[in-house]
Structures are given as C-alpha cells and as structure tokens.
C-alpha cells in the first residue's frame, strides 16, 4: 500500500512538471542530467521484481537496475534518481516531451514505437512473451479454451493489441475488461471479475506474487507474442542513447567476463584481458565518446552488479517471481540464450 501512495506522488510529479522543460531543450540530456545532479527515470506502477518500492521507500527491480546503472555511470551514485512512476498510457508522452530522461519499465520494442513516437529503444534487458493466467480451479489448461471469456487487460499496451490478434486468428471471441491502471486489472482478476488476466508472462508472474494465494493461479502454456523489453530514450539524442544502451551492455558483458560487484576491484587491480581492461577504463579512451569519465563502467559493476546478479536478486528462482533463466532466452548467448553485448573496442 505504501507503493500506492508513492504512485500518486509520482504521478503528481509528472503533472506538476508539465510539458515544457525539454521541448525547449537545446542542451543534451547528458548536460541536463549532470547539471541537475539527478536522473529522472520513469518506471511503471509498481510491478514486483521489475520496479517496486521496499518498506523503506527505496525502489528496486530488474528494470530499476538499468536506471541505477545509468545513474552510477553519469552521476557516480545509484541513489541520485528521481523515480517517476506513471501508468502505461502516458509513458511515451512523458518521455517524448522531456519530463523523463529515460524509461525502464517492461516496455516492448516495436517498430511503431521506435519510429513514430519520437523515441528510440536502447537494447533488451528481458526477453518476454504474452500469456494468460487463470484460476487453477477453472480447469482451463490452454488458451484455446478461452472462447467467450472475460479478460482483464491494460490499455495502451502491446498486450491489448496482441489479445485482439490472437482471438481473431483463432476465430474466438472475448469480452475485454480494460483499464489503464495495472492495480485495477490485477485486483479485478483476483476478485473474480475476469476469467483470465493477460500480460507479459513475467508481469503475470509478478502479479501472481502479490496474490493472497499465488498457487491458486496458473499461467497457461501458450506464448502468443514476442515482447522484447528494454529501456527507451528520446529520439535524436544519440549520445544519451549510447550511454543508456552501453550501461546495460556493461552489465551483460560483466557477467560474460565473470566479473561481479564483489570481484570487480580485484579484477581491476589484476586483469590482463585487453577487452576487460578497455571496459574498465584501464586502457584506451572508450569513455570519451560517451562524454563520461573512465571509471563509468567500473562504477556500474561495483554499485549495481552484473546482469546475472540483478536477475537473480530481482526475478530469479529464489525470489517470489521464481523466473527460471537457464534454458530461456534471457540466458547469456554463451549458454544458449540471447543476452549478448557488442564488443568493448
Ligand atoms: N510490454 C507491454 C506492457 C507490459 C505491462 O503491461 N507490464 C505490466 C507489468 S505488471 C504493467 O502494466 N506494469 C504496470 C505499469 O507499467 O504501469 C508494453 O510494452 O506495452
């Protein structure tokens, strides 16, 4: 419930800031963030594992760690973040008009979003796909059995569009219960107002973790779409986009190199690996193009950790979400997955 208070507060910030600031922006986002000394990072309404508030009011999550990585790279401190928590329906406007510096909030990379909304996607931090959740006692075992069902869905999402495509393709009908508020969708489904809840499968796992009895709900086997999720910046500010994208790649590459938050100091003192040395700023001038100092990547690994550390502490098998990584698209490319960082060269 604490999260709800913060949500209202976060939405208030957005409203209060208004649309002006960056429309008249002549400075780069990097300069604005450095001058302000704070990163305005947009997340969604709290979604456990991805962006949520703990009892001490701090935010955490797999997506929030991308915000933290950028804050560590640019401002040297993962706490220098103003969190903007807003609904899906206004997320792109709030970024495009300059209220947010970036967003990192289970957002799917699509052609339309990348090319027609004044935005640029910056890589993928979670490979997802859309699914359905139903009550275990419904006896439903497949999405193909949902003909005529009432389905809870959040507006302004790819989810809403895929739902329509899927039922049309399979010659089935459904009654949508649509809302912009993810809490209302979740609660309406939990209280029996919908036969099924549809969302990205990770989001379903996230919702289920908040239910009174998670085991009363099952996620059906079908995956009806591709949902590559990742951070987004405004179109046209390429250096800022590079910073966001390469901050994420540092986390992925660090895991591939076997470097963790606990070992990065030792690695920095001892490594002879040329690529690791370039990434950590021990050799070369790679930081210059980003407009950052040479320790930017070191700080990300030290303060946030590598991608695997973030995955395990936020959404992995030991968390309430319990998402398996082995054998999934979210494994490193060296382990059969798609997590892959371009070279540090
Ligand atoms: N990936 C979808 C949206 C996925 C989604 O709806 N995520 C859930 C996570 S539980 C959600 O609604 N979160 C609340 C929010 O972001 O406001 C998209 O980009 O349109």
Extended strand count: 14
From the spread of the alpha carbons, the general shape counts as: globular
- Work out the helicity level: 25-40%
Output the CATH class name of the largest domain.
Answer: Alpha Beta
Which strands sit side by side, in order, in the main sheet? 10-9-11-8-12
Biggest pleated-sheet summary: 5 strands, mixed
What is the number of domains? 2
* Helix/strand order: HHHEEEHEHEHEEEEHEHEHEEEHHHHH
CATH topology of the largest domain: D-Maltodextrin-Binding Protein, domain 2
Helix/strand class: alpha/beta
Small molecules bound in the structure, each named once = glutathione
How large is the share of residues in beta strands? Answer: 15-25%
CATH homologous superfamily title of the largest domain = Periplasmic binding protein-like II
Q: List unreliable stretches of 5+ residues.
A: 1-24
Describe this structure in words.
The structure is a single chain. By secondary structure, the protein is of the alpha/beta class. It folds into 2 domains: 2-127 and 229-335, Periplasmic binding protein-like II (D-Maltodextrin-Binding Protein, domain 2), CATH 3.40.190.10; 130-225, Periplasmic binding protein-like II (D-Maltodextrin-Binding Protein, domain 2, 3-Layer(aba) Sandwich). The protein contains 14 helices and 14 strands. The protein has helices at 2-17, 20-23, 29-36, 62-75, 91-96, 111-116, 158-169, 182-190, 201-210, 238-257, 264-270, 274-279, 296-303, 307-314; strands at 39-43, 52-53, 59-60, 81-85, 102-103, 119-121, 126-128, 130-135, 149-154, 174-179, 196-200, 217-219, 227-229, 232-234. The strands form 5 sheets. A 5-stranded mixed beta sheet has the order 10-9-11-8-12, with helices on both faces. Strands 4-1-5 form a 3-stranded parallel beta sheet. Helix 4 packs across helix 10. The protein binds glutathione. Glutathione (GSH) is lined by residues 44-45, 47, 87-88, 105-108, 154, 157-159, 182, 199-200, 203, 206-207, 227, 229. The site of glutathione has 21 residues, from helix 7, strand 11, helix 9 and strand 13.
């Amino acid at each position: 419930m604490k999260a709800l208070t913060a949500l209202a507060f976060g939405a208030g910030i957005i409203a209060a800031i208004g649309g002006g600031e960056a429309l008249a922006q002549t400075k780069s986002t990097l300069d604005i963030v450095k001058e302000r000394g704070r990163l305005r990072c947009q997340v969604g309404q709290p979604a456990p594992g991805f962006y949520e508030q703990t009892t001490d009011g701090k935010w955490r999550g797999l997506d929030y760690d991308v915000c933290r990585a950028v804050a560590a790279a640019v401002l040297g401190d993962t706490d220098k973040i103003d969190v903007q928590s807003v609904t899906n329906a206004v997320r792109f406007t709030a970024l495009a008009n300059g209220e947010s510096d970036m967003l990192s909030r289970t957002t799917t990379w699509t052609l339309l979003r990348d090319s027609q909304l004044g935005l640029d996607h910056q890589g993928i931090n979670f490979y997802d796909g859309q699914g359905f959740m139903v009550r275990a006692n419904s006896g439903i075992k497949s999405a193909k059995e949902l003909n005529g069902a009432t389905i809870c869905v959040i507006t302004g999402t790819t989810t809403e569009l895929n739902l329509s495509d899927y039922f049309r393709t399979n010659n089935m009908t459904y009654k949508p219960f649509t809302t912009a508020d993810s809490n209302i969708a979740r609660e309406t489904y939990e209280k029996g107002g919908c036969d099924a809840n549809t969302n990205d499968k990770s989001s379903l796992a996230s919702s289920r973790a908040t239910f009174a009895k998670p085991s009363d709900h099952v996620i059906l086997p079908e995956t009806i779409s591709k949902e590559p999720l990742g951070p987004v910046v405004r179109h046209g500010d390429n250096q800022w986009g590079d910073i966001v994208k390469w901050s994420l790649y540092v986390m992925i590459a660090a895991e591939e190199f076997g470097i963790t938050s606990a070992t990065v100091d030792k690695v920095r003192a001892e490594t002879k690996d040329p690529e690791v040395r370039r990434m950590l700023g021990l050799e070369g001038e790679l930081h210059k193009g980003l407009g950052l100092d040479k320790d930017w990547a070191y700080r990300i690994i030290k303060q946030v950790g590598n991608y695997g550390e973030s995955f395990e502490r936020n959404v992995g098998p030991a968390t309430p979400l319990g998402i398996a990584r082995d054998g999934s698209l979210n494994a490193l490319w060296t382990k059969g997955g798609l997590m892959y960082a371009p070279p540090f060269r």
